[in-house]
Design brief:
Elements lengths: L1 H25 L12 E8 L4 H14 L5 E9 L1 H13 L3 E3 L3 H10 L1
Parallel strand pairs: 1-2, 2-3
């Protein structure tokens, strides 16, 4: 009985170590050099009903990976409600910007 329990515990520990090793191999952090920035472009058109949920999901995914980047919402024919949602998202989150505001934000970052 004790031997079976010990073997089961050792097998569980081996599986946990294998999973941890696999995560380290699959996760490669991105290090950007000075003067470089990363942007994720999200093209939104029409009603873009899922825009807010998509932005929140992307921010969560990027945060889990430790990756810092701007999410740029590109207006590809958004209606007024979708544009208002995009504006609210850009006000709520500092890393979410509308396409026309990207260059201005980059200039501000460079000058500080």
């Amino acid at each position: 009985m004790f031997t079976e329990l010990l073997i089961s515990a050792l097998a569980a520990a081996a599986v946990a170590l294998l999973i941890a090793a696999a995560r380290r191999c699959l996760y490669t952090p991105v290090h950007l050099g000075e003067g470089l920035r990363l942007e994720l472009r999200l093209s939104a058109g029409g009603r873009a009903e899922s825009l807010e949920g998509s932005v929140r999901s992307l921010r969560e995914l990027l945060g889990r990976g430790g990756l810092s980047c701007d999410i740029v919402i590109v207006d590809s024919g958004m209606d007024e409600a979708a544009r208002e949602t995009a504006l609210l998202l850009s006000r709520r989150y500092g890393d979410v910007v509308l396409a026309e505001a990207v260059e201005e934000k980059w200039r501000k970052r460079r000058n500080t």
